[in-house]
Design brief:
The complex is a heterodimer.
Chain A (H helix, E strand, L loop, with lengths): L5 H9 L5 H19 L2 E4 L1 H16 L10 E5 L26 H8 L3 E6 L33 H8 L5 E6 L5 H7 L2 E4 L19 E6 L2 H11 L29 E5 L9 H16 L3 E5 L7 H16 L18 H12 L2 H14 L5 H21 L5 E5 L15 H5 L6 H5 L4 E9 L2 E8 L5 H13 L11
Chain B lengths: L2 E12 L38 H13 L7 E2 L2 E4 L9 E4 L9 E6 L5 E13 L3 E3 L8 E3 L6 E7 L6 H18 L11 E11 L9 E6 L2 H20 L7 E6 L4 E7 L9 E2 L6 E2 L2 H9 L5 H12 L3 H8 L2 H14 L2 H19 L10 H12 L5 H12 L5 H7 L8 H14 L1 H8 L6 H11 L6 H13 L1
Parallel strand pairs in B: 11-12
Antiparallel strand pairs in B: 1-9, 1-10, 2-15, 3-4, 3-14, 5-6, 6-9, 7-8, 10-11, 12-13
Helix pairs in contact in B: 2-3, 5-6, 6-8, 7-8, 7-9, 9-10, 12-14, 12-15, 14-15
Classes of the chains: A alpha/beta, B alpha+beta.
Chain lengths: 482, 477
């Protein structure tokens, strides 16, 4: 039951095979049993979940159920939730309760989804392994000695270990796709502006985007149907007519042209991963897709450009955590400066402090042109690379990550090695495009994902291709033994 | 050594919108602390700014009023610094692409000529909250009611050459803002705040001297005093062989002096960068023209019209158009009494005298334009003399408002009955034989004495023209 997709659970609920309360209780029991091992959740809300489940059952009885009514989900702890802690993985917000719900939370709740709790994450979404969390690392359900990826590692692990039916995540440089790859699940980072950022604690405002982590592309489409759409509270949220992201799932793939970036299949990628991707290419070819090599000539500049722009924005976004109004305040500050220095010094972890310093430096007088402006120019070039590529192909396929999940502690002593984790995903954020990771195989018993990238607003097409792929493969149905 | 003063002004104007620049909170002044602070104003995590379009409309209307280039694509930036009354740790402002670009403003100089002052730019930004340092036992209180209130920062070129010009510029700016209705312009409450950049250089020098910035001076009078003090300080410094340090100085009105607040050497690096939470503000010609269509008649245009339409002197026209309320008051009076010149005299002399004496704004005038118009009508139709009218005006200023009732109840109606005036004249002539002798002996100056005596006898009510005529006739007989 627990490993079922949302679509399957929704049918079961609709058929009254069980109630949402019963389903919720099963998940809560599993969380109680496994979360101590995995640390996927930082906050579990059983009472609230059962209350929402009961309300969902009432809603269903009254004939007003949606596809997500009564479905138990988890929220990354970056989304503000009224009356439930929102920590963002940080000591700074360890005791913070938001007075309001994020737009994503609000919409899923309105659709009748049941919140089981809040998932662990890298502190302020800064990390690729979930090891920067103030609440300790998340363990990969496939191998508990390994990381789940990050920053949405808690959400990815929770979905993979069946601790929820699906989960929300956010992706600034790969934070949905890379953990999806490491945990063997499906993750979608929508086009920038598809989903409102209202109530999502900002890391890098021009890159942050919320999206689903799920057991199938179809489930991702179901969540997109609820969370996507205009929101007047976020000026960068696109004002588009509502779209049914499930509508194109069953389109045939004939005439589909897929680009393979030479830069993604170069020496940096292991032969084993290449082989897995070749298998996927074969599958898609058999479904009618044609493939073509393309170039993304500025891809190698994406990591350095990202590590200027994202920290620059973060350095300002995190200024509000000053100990004055909410969050952590140091003991007995002697004056204002002491309060600022110690509250921030004690409240933030090393990686957050590192990025604040990098960002502050990049914006400083005398360095702004050399770093920030140059990075913005690179960002435009990267976007142009994609625009050019999409003149010839409909989608781009490649690896999500160079490898499978690495061991806890293996990379966290060297920030640059860690930053290179996102080498295939970051350019997508810089260009504001939609990208997906979906399970493509197992290597040494560990899952590995492939990435699909499309032009702006092509989510329906991406989901269509992913769904068709999943109809003809079973990598996405593989589950770890926990 | 002759020194030349160079002044540029930065004026912050609080825009009179109902809600804040980026949130729905009220901007009403004087509410209990932190009752007008929303989630966004408190910088709660996850909140985002939403542009108040009324602010854009107001900024564009100011731009049009000073003939400025309007930025069709303006961009918000973050200005980063830590302070408890700045909740986000950055202020949203406009750095490189302001909504209002270069414009001009005409002032009248002391010498009586016109001078055009260039406006460098005017940009939209958010105000900070207030830190309260009293009543918190060594701690500070923060009131965020003002945080996020929209400001228009209007920056001038360094075109001003003395304190008087600076004040004339400020007053003109103040007037335009009130004409446009985009701010209440209340300097005491901080709705209009002025920073002055002051430097001096040797007369004839091309290069500017090092400037000091005087912060937050909150009245026209203090602006003048602060600049004069600062200029004198810099002259003394340079003449003693010292040098001016670039710094921010604070004006202390109690001591009438400026003093160092912080030097630029340790100033913040604000690390400006484009605000990623807001899209650039893009406006088209249709928007600009729609705003232009709502512009009221502005002071310079109105002044010219007053000169033409009412035959007023340039001086009177300027005084009367210096504020929109004043101009409207004047036109209401003219409408009622039909005599522009008399109306101008009464408004600029009697009414302004009264207001100045009690330190009142024209909106607070105890004499309303209807009463003043009626009063002038009563002079014109000979019900009362101009002199008696002053008495009636005094009664009006004390809160009475029915001109005719005042005249009636106090018996102030002018005496125009020839018989009654003749009796007055006869009595005065009979009572003063010596003066009659002198007048008839050719001493014309004594005539005034008779007028005075007769007026006194009539308690000021005799019609002056009739009295004059009869006196002259009888004395000459």
């Amino acid at each position: 039951m627990l490993s079922k997709t949302v679509a399957e659970l929704a049918s079961a609920l609709a058929a009254r095979d069980m109630s949402s309360v019963e389903l919720t209780q099963i998940y809560l029991d599993r969380i109680a049993q496994l979360n101590p091992k995995l640390n996927a959740y930082v906050t579990i809300t059983p009472e609230l979940a059962l209350e929402q489940a009961a309300a969902a059952d009432v809603l269903r009885a009254s004939g007003k159920a949606t596809a997500l009514t009564g479905i138990p989900i988890a929220h990354k702890d970056i989304f503000c939730t009224r009356d439930v802690l929102t920590t963002c993985g940080s000591r700074m917000l360890a005791n913070f309760t938001s007075p309001y719900d994020a737009c994503v939370v609000e919409r899923l709740q309105a659709a009748g989804a049941v919140m089981l709790g809040k998932t662990n994450m890298d502190e302020f979404a800064m990390g690729s392994s979930n090891e920067t969390s103030h609440f300790g690392p998340v363990h990969n359900p496939w191998d508990q000695a390994r990381v789940p990826g990050g920053s949405s590692g808690g959400s990815a692990a929770a979905v993979a270990a069946d601790l929820c039916a699906m989960a929300t995540g956010t992706d600034t440089g790969g934070s949905i796709r890379q953990p999806a790859s490491f945990c063997g699940i499906t993750g979608l980072k929508p086009t920038y502006g598809r989903v409102s950022r209202w109530g999502m604690i900002a890391f890098a405002s021009s890159l942050d985007q919320a999206g689903p982590l799920s057991k199938s592309a179809e489930d991702a489409a179901l969540m997109m149907n609820v969370i996507a759409g205009a929101d007047a509270r976020d000026s960068t949220c696109l004002d588009l007519p509502t779209e049914d992201f499930t509508a194109q799932l069953n389109q045939p793939l004939s005439a589909l042209r897929i680009g393979l970036p030479r830069e993604h299949f170069s020496a940096g990628l292991s032969g084993q991963v290449q082989e897995i991707l070749q298998q996927a290419i074969k599958t898609l070819t058999s479904l009618g897709a044609t493939f073509k090599d393309i170039n993304l000539p500025n891809n190698h500049l994406s990591v350095p450009a990202y590590y200027v722009i994202a920290p620059a924005e973060a350095s300002a976004n995190l200024s509000r955590f000053d100990g004055a109004r909410f969050g952590y305040r140091c003991q007995n500050p002697v004056n204002l400066e002491d309060m600022y220095k110690r509250s921030r010094g004690e409240g933030f972890g090393d990686e957050v402090k590192r990025r604040i310093m990098v960002g502050t430096y990049a914006l400083s007088a005398g360095y702004y042109d050399a770093y920030y402006i140059k990075a913005q120019k690179i960002r435009r070039l990267i976007k142009q690379d994609f625009d050019t590529a999409f003149q010839d192909v409909d989608l781009i396929l490649g690896p999500t990550s160079p490898h499978t999940a690495f061991k806890l502690g293996e990379k966290n002593s060297d920030p640059v090695t860690m930053y290179l984790e996102d080498i295939y995903t970051i350019a997508v954020n810089l260009a504001g495009l939609p990208g997906m990771s979906l399970p493509a195989g197992l290597l040494g018993g560990l899952p590995i994902g492939m990435q699909l990238v499309g032009p702006a607003l092509s989510e329906s097409r991406l989901l269509n291709v992913a769904h068709q792929f999943q109809l003809h493969t079973d990598w996405h149905t593989q589950r770890p033994e926990v | 050594m002759t020194w030349e003063t160079v002044i540029g002004l930065e004026v912050h104007v609080q825009l009179a919108t109902k809600s804040k620049l980026f949130s729905g909170s009220s901007t009403h002044f004087g509410a209990a602390p932190n009752t007008q602070a929303s989630l966004y104003d408190l910088a709660m995590p996850g909140t985002l700014p939403m542009m108040n379009e009324e602010v854009l409309r107001m900024a564009v209307s100011f731009g049009l009023a000073v003939d400025a280039e309007i930025g069709k694509r303006s961009v918000f930036d973050r200005k980063n610094y830590f302070y408890p009354d700045l909740p986000k740790g950055y202020q949203i402002t406009q750095l490189d692409f302001p909504t209002v670009g270069r414009g001009t403003l005409k002032i009248q100089t002391e010498e009586g000529g016109d001078k055009v002052i260039a406006i460098t730019r005017a940009h939209i930004e958010e105000d900070a909250g207030k830190s309260l340092h009293e009543d918190f036992q060594g701690m500070s209180g923060i009131d965020l009611n003002r945080a996020g209130t929209p400001l228009l920062e209007i920056v001038s070129d360094p075109d001003l050459r003395n304190a008087k010009e600076a004040v004339a510029y400020l007053k003109k700016l103040h007037s335009i803002i009130l004409y446009l209705g985009i701010s209440d312009g209340n300097m005491a409450q901080g709705s209009m705040r002025c920073d002055a950049n002051v430097s001096i250089r040797k007369k004839g020098d091309k290069e500017f001297g090092t400037r000091a910035e005087i912060k937050n001076v909150n009245s026209f009078r203090f602006v003048e005093k602060a600049i004069n003090y600062e200029v004198q300080r810099q002259i003394e410094l340079l003449e003693d062989g010292g040098r001016v340090v670039q710094e921010t100085r604070l004006y202390d009105s109690d001591k009438d002096e400026t003093r160092t607040m912080r030097s630029k050497e340790i100033a913040n690096d604000y690390r400006y960068f484009p605000e990623p939470d807001l899209l650039p503000l893009v406006i088209d010609d249709a928007f600009i023209e729609a705003v232009r269509a709502t512009l009221p008649e502005l002071p310079d245009t109105r002044c010219q019209r007053f000169i033409k339409q009412y035959g007023l002197s340039e001086y009177d026209a300027e005084v009367l158009t210096s504020s929109r309320d004043m101009a409207e008051y004047f036109e209401a009076v003219v409408e009622l009494c039909g005599d522009a010149k008399l109306s101008a005299n009464w408004v600029t002399a009697d009414l302004l005298g009264l207001l100045n004496k009690h330190d009142l704004d024209i909106k607070q005038s105890p004499v309303n334009p209807e009463s003043l118009g009626r009063l002038i009508s009563r002079i014109k139709d000979n019900t009362i003399s101009g002199k008696i009218a002053k008495t009636v005006f005094e009664a009006l200023s004390e809160g009475k408002n029915d001109v005719d009732a005042i005249i009636e109840s106090r018996g102030l109606k002018q005496v125009t009955d020839t018989g009654a005036i003749e009796k007055l004249v006869d009595d005065v002539i009979a009572a003063n034989p010596d003066q009659v002798e002198q007048f008839r002996g050719g001493k014309e100056a004594v005539f005034g004495f008779f007028v005075g005596q007769a007026m006194k006898l009539s308690k000021g009510k005799a019609n002056p023209a009739q009295l004059n005529e009869l006196l002259r006739r009888k004395l000459s007989a």
